[in-house]
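Re: weekly structure request thread

Next one in the queue (306 aa):
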Amino acid sequence: MTVVTLGVHIVDVLARPVESIPQGQDTLLLEQIRLTAAGAAAGTAVDLAKLGVPVASVGAAGDDELGDFLLMVMERHGVDVTGIVRKPGEQTAASILPIRPDGGRPSFHVPGANLALTPADVDPGRLRAAEVVHLGGMDVTWALHDAAFLALLDEVRAAGTVVTMDLLSNMPDLVRAARVFLPHVDYVLPNEEQALMMSGETEAEKAAAALLAEGPRGVLVTLGGEGSLVATATATATETARLPARDVAVVDTTGCGDAYCAGFIAGLVAGRGVLDAARLGTEVAARVAGGLGSDAGLDGLDVTRL
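Done, posted below.
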């Protein structure tokens, strides 16, 4: 496989538009409800498959009906799911997302089997064979904070594999703990809140510079409606650029970060430079923001035209 996504796998149940939770046993009629494969590994994998990039996903799901659905929908979209292990006695991670009219998304979440993912569940051969390995949600997959796993990342990078990383949570202790991965990845793609938490800085530019100093070649900070900040390290200096967001009618912000990662990775696979790959990430994220769910708006999208 060209890309392996490794980490968090979630089933999302999304409903829109939700302005309030009904009282008692009342019913609120909605326009749309969807179930999707989501999470920083699964959502990115589905988006990559929709962009035409060969992708396999590695992670954990419960041995339950939600797990059956998760694997079915990912496989239907073209993702190789043979690296997803089923954990008896664990629930597949799931979220219920009532989407507000402005696209905001409060969440009800069960972390489930993601917390049970261990280095023993990861086939090193899959990572060694990949052109890109994307780590999705290393802040919540605690067992992967392991010296042997970090050594494996160093090994595959030395052989030419590019390693990218995105985060999942906004919990300060978890986000800061994920700093252990920074010397072992090439590109890290946090949102602004995560970048500030991880670095201890108060501005995006300073946060990106601090994270670059830990070892990655590039830090791409997504800034919501303000676009993204791309910072790269050269032998002599740090170069930064801001990319504006596309002006789109936002339906749902779920999965926009995963979509940005997928577009960026697709750009790298296609041989684009970092800034041009980030522009592709911006375009893909904008398409997803215009629909419901982390893979909305990507069917039939020809990235060679973007």
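The longest helix spans residues 274-289. Residues 46 and 74 are 6 Å apart (CA to CA).
Next request, please.
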